Amino acid sequence: MGDRDIEVLIIEDDLRIAEIQKRFIEQINGFQTIGIAASYIEARTLIDILKPDLLLLDVYFPDMNGLDLLKEIKQHTKQMDVIMITATKEIHKVQEAISIGVFDYIIKPVVFDRFKQTLLRYQDYYAKLLKLRVENTHITQHQVDKLLRREVDDAVYEKSYLPKGIDPLTLEKVIEVLGKTGMGLTAERVAKEIGVSRTTARRYLEHLVSMEKIDADLSYGTVGRPERVYMVTRSM
């Protein structure tokens, strides 16, 4: 996330509830409350001036509907995320909030554990998104799926979304071979270790490269064409 906390603006007309949310945020590392707005004018002013990363937004206010503000925000400030925190339980309101694009919808009274769970989930999402923005102009399907699902265990993903021609047991063997050495291995070497053809080994290795589990580089020998060498880039 870089060197700064995630900046949060609370939009809540009940200042006692807003203060509770502020105190909740203070108990979670990596977040900072930068303002509290109790009306439409205050909300628009603080959004425009402070440009927070995340809004905690109620639905009903004396001078506005929070869902209308949510629509306005999403139309003009697409990179600002919103968590609805409201006593509103009508299913059509919940559906509308989800369709507009809230990160989460929490029903009052707010329980700290539930609140913390959502903020930690958002923190993880924010960190992944920031990392992708810095390192990539394009992202893989796996990275998109992890962002959209927000909580995707890699092991579950690999078993559930393996492409055609990739067997989970063989994939585990390839990962095991790579994990035993700190040096890069060629497809031919991996093939010999697990007892498959070089073509099969290379298919599994390239799959792991696409999943960003391993890296690949070219090794220039003294004779013949350069070979692709595969190596672990992070703990598997």
Account of the 3D structure:
- With 236 residues, the chain is α/β, with parallel strands linked by helices.
- Helix content is 50%, strand content 19%.
- It has helices spanning 15-26, 40-50, 66-76, 91-100, 112-135, 141-149, 154-160, 168-179, 187-194, 198-210; strands at 6-11, 31-37, 54-57, 60-61, 64-65, 81-86, 104-107, 185-186, 214-219, 227-232.
- The strands form three sheets. Strands 2-1-3-6-7 form a five-stranded parallel sheet, with helices on both faces. A three-stranded antiparallel sheet has the order 8-10-9. A two-stranded antiparallel sheet has the order 4-5.
- β4 (60-61) and β5 (64-65) form a beta hairpin.
- It starts with 5 loop residues before the first strand and ends with a strand.
List the secondary-structure elements in sequence, H or E: EHEHEEEHEHEHHHHEHHEE
Low-confidence stretches: none
Radius of gyration: 24 Å
Q: Helix share of residues?
A: 40-55%
Measured between the Cα atoms of the first and last residue, the distance is: 23 Å
Class from helix and strand fractions: alpha/beta
Strand content: 15-25%
**How are the strands of the biggest sheet laid out side by side?**
2-1-3-6-7
Overall average pLDDT: 86
Largest sheet: 5 strands, parallel
Shape: elongated
Number of strands: 10
Q: Figure out the total of helices.
A: 10
Give descriptors for this structure.
single chain, 236 residues, alpha/beta, 10 strands
